[in-house]
């Protein structure tokens, strides 16, 4: 099936406008997901783990440092947010998983609220099973496949889900949307397809066919919450930096992605949260909302 020629739009919470996404590697993605020869390369090479490991190795080479300054300039990144200056990183992966200075992402939520776990474009499903479609009509989440655990999925039937899609230009550290006691990460092996909307418009199931890492947050003000970090083409690793079994606070760092566009999913039990109005409005129009880590995602109703 050819890739849709329609541009990708999202609502920017800060500008208050619909904006067109500038897609990293757009020409390559359109070829590999829309051209018959490209799809041969997709299934034979690009979605395979060895390809992403090879690309991750390239991004760890000292020679990849030369890519940093052009990347910052092309995508107009705000260097004043960086904890370290752009020219201080030894390779591109170190820059890609950079930390930000204190205060660059203030935590807007209180104990009665939940916050975004990452910078990115966020798609809301207020009630799982009642969505009319994701990105296009007819596509729905398979929660049991996403979580890799049918019994756990039963506990979240009819719950609320937010898909947070990180582009290569975004800050790639992951944080906890609520505080609570956290489980060890359960790794779910899979392929490494792109999570670009160019690919997801064709086949949403790439999200639960890809390698994933599931974390359960217990004893939170919102009740039990589950998060799923999803790998993608050219993502070197899903790395967690928290201590399993520990008590964490809202906004605390959970981990990071190495090079590549990626996604993280947050799932709440039915009736436990009410999402922000812009998420509900634009999700109903099959559109994402751009917001930064730490900004308010919703209010706890439990």
Describe the protein in words:
With about 300 residues, this protein is of the alpha+beta class. Helices cover about 25% and strands about 25% of the residues. The chain is built from 10 helices and 19 strands. It has helices at about 25-35, 35-45, 50-60, 70-75, 90-95, 145, 150-155, 195-200, 205-210, 275-285; strands spanning about 10, 15-20, 115, 120-125, 135, 135, 160-165, 175, 180, 185-190, 210-220, 225-230, 240, 245-250, 255, 260-270, 275, 290, 295-300. Strands 1, 2, 4, 7, 9, 10, 11, 12, 14, 16 and 18 form an 11-stranded mixed β-sheet that branches. α1 crosses α2 (about 35-45). The longest helix is centred in the N-terminal third of the chain and has 11 residues, at about 35-45.
Question: Which helices and strands, and how do they pair?
Answer:
Blueprint lengths: L8 E4 L4 E4 L5 H9 L1 H11 L2 H11 L8 H7 L17 H5 L16 E3 L4 E6 L7 E2 L1 E2 L5 H5 L2 H6 L4 E7 L6 E3 L4 E3 L3 E3 L8 H4 L5 H4 L2 E9 L2 E8 L7 E3 L6 E2 L4 E5 L4 E7 L4 E3 L1 H7 L4 E4 L4 E5 L2
Parallel strand pairs: 1-18
Antiparallel strand pairs: 1-2, 3-19, 4-7, 4-18, 5-6, 7-16, 8-15, 9-11, 9-14, 10-11, 11-12, 12-16, 13-15, 17-19
Helix pairs in contact: 1-2
Question: Span between N and C termini?
Answer: 44 Å
Q: How much helical structure, as a percent, in the residues? A: 10-25%
Mean pLDDT: 86
- The helix/strand order is EEHHHHHEEEEHHEEEEHHEEEEEEEHEE
Estimate what percentage of residues fall within beta strands. 25-35%
Please tell me what the overall shape is: globular
Biggest sheet character: 11 strands, mixed
- Which structural class do you get from the secondary structure elements? alpha+beta
How many DSSP-defined strands?
A: 19
Number of helices: 10
Poorly predicted runs: 40-48
As a whole number of angstroms, the C-alpha radius of gyration is: 18 Å
């Amino acid at each position: 099936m050819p890739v849709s020629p329609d541009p990708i739009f999202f609502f920017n919470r800060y500008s208050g406008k619909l904006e067109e996404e500038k897609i990293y590697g757009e020409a390559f993605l359109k070829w590999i997901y829309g051209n018959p020869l490209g799809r041969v390369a997709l299934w034979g090479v690009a979605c395979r783990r060895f390809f992403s490991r090879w690309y991750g190795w390239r991004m760890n080479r000292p020679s990849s440092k030369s890519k940093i300054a052009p990347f910052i300039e092309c995508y107009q990144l705000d260097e004043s947010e960086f904890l370290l200056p752009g020219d201080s990183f030894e390779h591109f992966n170190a820059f890609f998983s950079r930390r930000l200075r204190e205060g660059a992402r203030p935590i807007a939520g209180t104990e009665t609220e939940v916050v975004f776990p990452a910078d990115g474009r966020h798609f809301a499903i207020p009630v799982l099973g009642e969505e009319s479609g994701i990105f296009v009509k007819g596509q729905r989440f398979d929660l049991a496949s996403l979580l890799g655990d049918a019994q756990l999925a039963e506990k979240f039937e009819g719950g609320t889900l937010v898909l947070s899609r990180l582009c290569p230009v975004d800050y790639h550290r992951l944080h906890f949307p609520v505080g609570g006691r956290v489980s060890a990460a359960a790794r779910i092996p899979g392929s490494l397809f792109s999570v670009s909307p160019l690919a997801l418009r064709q086949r949403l199931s790439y999200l639960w066919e890809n390698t994933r890492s599931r974390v359960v947050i217990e004893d939170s003000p919102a009740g039990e919450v589950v998060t799923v970090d999803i790998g993608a083409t050219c993502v070197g690793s899903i790395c967690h930096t928290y201590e399993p079994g520990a008590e964490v606070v809202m906004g605390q760092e959970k981990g990071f992605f190495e090079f590549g566009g990626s996604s993280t999913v947050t799932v709440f039990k039915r009736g436990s949260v009410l999402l922000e109005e812009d998420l509900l409005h634009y999700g109903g129009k099959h559109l994402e909302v751009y917001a930064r880590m730490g900004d308010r995602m919703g209010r706890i109703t439990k």
